[in-house]
Design brief:
It is a single chain. This protein has about 300 residues and is an alpha+beta fold. It contains five helices and twelve strands. A seven-stranded antiparallel beta sheet has the order 1-2-3-4-5-6-7, sandwiched between helices. Helix 3 packs antiparallel against helix 5 and helix 4 packs across helix 5. It is globular, with a radius of gyration of 19 Å.
Amino acid sequence: MRKAMGAVAALLLWGCGGAGTDVPSAAPGSPEGLTLGSEAGLTRGTWTREGQEVSFSSREVEPGVYRLEVRTHGLTLTGLMDPASGVSTLDGFADQNAQDTQVVDADRDVLAAFYQALNQGLPAGDAATPEAMYLRRAVGMWAQHPTSVTLKRTVMGEQGRGYTMLCSYAKCGGKNTGSCGGTYNWYSYAKHDCNKGGFDNAKNQQIAQLGDHTTCNGDEYYMNGSTWVCGEPDHWSRPKVMGNCFGRCGGGCGGDTQYTLDATNHDGCVRNGHMLASAYCDDQFLSATDDELFAPNCY
């Protein structure tokens, strides 16, 4: 806690001061895609696609403490992460006036595509450098950030209290990935609360096979009678579901392999008749934030 809180002032001064000088913008006409640069304790670069551009940096500012910045079309997102203490200070503001702002659909679209580029461009899981891994995790979190949730907040996480690991449920047939071969390891239940009722409402619950085992057209499967159907059931009573890395922190099958209770419940909300940024899923998103930032990889 001491380390993280001691560096907050430095982050805020840097964010309001010369923020634009740390990572230069890509030159006009530069090739599209991800450009990465790295040195000891620093990962930085740009990502461009169809006229959209993201500049980013993640720097170790104290031993085990990382300062992140992501900038895209007038939006700056910042973070100061102290994984050892389980504390992260997050913020976001509009470049035009340095005022608080929100993440909207257009921002989420860009950030989600950037997140996928990081998943492809960085080593998976713990093979990435810490500053690169925490950058990827923060971008995955921001790419799902609801408009109705404030960007400026402190996130605290501690295993067993802030987050609960579900690594064993992400396996089937003894494997972390690949086909389950008809032998499943169901997790009961992925739950949420919404306008349909509370966590105890069977229509707000799904029986899930967690893990990276199958997908269909970028979606998941659910059991309809005795047949697997591609799609997402809308508030059925405890359907069996699997696919698209159900229960994994981050969108889809990201570069990290964290399977947690809160991430499972967030998946169970946004894949059960609600939009990604639905206000009904805000509480699940907030509960899963510390999981995504701090939970260890399962494999």
